[in-house]
Design the sequence.
């Protein structure tokens, strides 16, 4: 969810709560004020009633009280002299509709007899006034809320425009290009400070990237040459007839160590190049077809190890990869399936449009499956294994939008590659 959207949601929710509480409070205040006015008028009517009774020592209906409903009833027992207000409903004698009234009840002696006097005033006009005020208030607050929300959204969009411009330029920034990151100035101090920090970071990253790129290129060239020379000289020494058996074993050990260093150098340099995105010739590659071709090319090795192949390719598994990395990924997967297989075992390839799985028979896994893709983590103890094959496969998948997973079921070791869902 975008920051502006989240901010607008919080602002709208908070405003709705505040406006609802304000509306309820305003309604109660208006209601109390109107009721206070009605009760004040009822008290005035009570004083008029009491004045009339004291003057005439009797009560008869008079036009003065026609507006209000007045009820005078003698009571037989003694009651406390007090007044009380309450709401009541009285049926209209014309249409039978119940009409709300506010009633004042008090006790007044007439001819020495205590009478209960109830003076009522209709609340129809009061309720209508409250309804009109409430509707007007809701409409006003609603329009105010919508206006404030629209204004805040427009204002936030304009204020955050430099930030989105900076974000767009960062997305287009490429370390492979020599062009430095250029960000425009803003009227907002915080955005200018952010742009300055980002430009310094980008410049430092470009410098470090170029240094690392030069190092890997130089190391790839400079280290391979002496290693190749060492291997060539060692091979010549091995072919010398004057060597003793002990010397031959020593030279053989040197030769194996030299070859191992060469493979380690190639693997680590390849990992560094993948991490630094130094492969840019991305193209569509059918990994299922490439794996099938690789297994066919290694038919002699498979026959020598007595391994059978089962291919189930229902659909091509197309990915976007540089051709060299696709070949490296396939080679490492096939080599792993052959190296850790067992005599009279099998290799199975299944392919769909969404997933590619390569499985092989083999022994029980010794190490933790979660660490299987770590560098220098290997199952085999042979001198030919350097522990970088699966790490290279994992790095290629992570760098190019693929996901690789391992699972073992009943002696079957399966590696599955799928597209990362975005």
Sequence:
């Amino acid at each position: 969810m975008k920051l502006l959207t989240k901010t607008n949601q919080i602002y709208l929710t908070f405003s709705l709560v505040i406006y609802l509480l304000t509306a309820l409070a305003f309604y109660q205040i208006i209601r109390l004020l109107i009721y206070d006015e009605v009760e004040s008028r009822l008290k005035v009517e009570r004083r008029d009633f009491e004045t009339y009774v004291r003057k005439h020592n009797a009560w008869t209906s008079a036009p003065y009280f026609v507006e209000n409903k007045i009820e005078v009833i003698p009571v037989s027992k003694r009651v406390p002299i007090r007044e009380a207000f309450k709401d009541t409903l009285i049926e209209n004698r014309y249409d039978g509709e119940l009409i709300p009234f506010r009633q004042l009840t008090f006790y007044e002696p007439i001819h020495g007899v205590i009478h209960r006097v109830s003076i009522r005033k209709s609340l129809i006009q009061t309720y209508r006034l409250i309804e009109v005020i409430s509707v007007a208030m809701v409409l006003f607050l609603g329009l105010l809320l919508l206006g404030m929300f629209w204004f805040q959204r427009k204002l936030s969009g304009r204020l955050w425009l430099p930030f989105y411009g900076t974000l767009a330029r960062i997305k287009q920034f490429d370390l492979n290009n020599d062009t430095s990151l250029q960000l425009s100035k803003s009227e907002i101090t915080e955005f200018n400070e952010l742009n300055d920090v980002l430009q310094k970071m980008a410049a430092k990253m470009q410098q470090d990237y170029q240094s690392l790129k030069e190092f890997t290129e130089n190391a790839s060239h400079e280290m391979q040459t002496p290693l190749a020379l060492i291997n060539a000289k060692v091979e010549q020494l091995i072919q010398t007839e004057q060597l003793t058996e002990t010397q031959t074993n020593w030279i053989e050990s040197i030769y194996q160590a030299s070859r191992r260093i060469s493979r380690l150098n190639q693997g680590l340099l390849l990992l560094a190049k993948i991490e630094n995105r130094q492969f840019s010739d991305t193209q569509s590659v059918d990994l299922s077809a490439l794996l099938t071709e690789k297994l066919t090319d290694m038919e002699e090795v498979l026959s020598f190890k007595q391994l059978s192949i089962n291919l189930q390719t229902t659909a091509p598994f197309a990915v976007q990869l540089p051709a060299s990395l696709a070949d490296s990924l396939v080679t490492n997967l096939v080599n792993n399936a052959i190296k850790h297989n067992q005599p009279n075992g099998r290799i199975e390839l299944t392919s769909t449009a969404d997933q590619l799985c390569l499985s092989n028979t083999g022994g029980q896994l010794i190490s933790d499956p979660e660490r299987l893709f770590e560098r220098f983590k290997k199952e085999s103890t042979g001198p030919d294994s350097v522990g970088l094959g699966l790490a290279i496969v994992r790095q290629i998948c992570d760098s190019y939008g693929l996901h690789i997973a391992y699972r073992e079921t009943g002696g079957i070791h399966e590696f599955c590659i799928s597209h990362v869902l975005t």
The chain has three domains: 3-156, 190-275, 282-419.
